[in-house]
User: What shape does this take?
Amino acid sequence: MSGRIYWDPTGAEFGIPTYPYRMAPKGLATRRQLTALGLRPAGQDVQAQILWRRGKRVAYLYAVELAKPKRTPTAAQLAALERAMQARRTCPRCLRDIGYCLRKRWPACLDCQTPDEREAA
Assistant: This one.
């Protein structure tokens, strides 16, 4: 089955229109491509798909004309995100900002961990 071309623009075989890698029609884009354009799918259904790597890889396509602009977070949302990140960067033992996010399995920053704790982690 290697070398199979996934060409089904009517969706008869795969249920939705399906195209091979790099052969999608204009006006359709992946989520990542929409993000690069400053857009979001805005609740629309998947319009088509791209299949490659023997059907093991799939990318869903959305209509660019139905996409809406990305929403910008409010000041309160940005402040809440900053507080959450600050909490993840704060060592529970020395209470200082360590400059990186502390892993959940680590009890403290590398400076505060004992040799036994370092081996366990």
User: Anything to note?
Assistant: Residues 18-69 form one domain. The chain has a mean pLDDT of 91. Helices lie at 31-36, 75-89, 115-120.
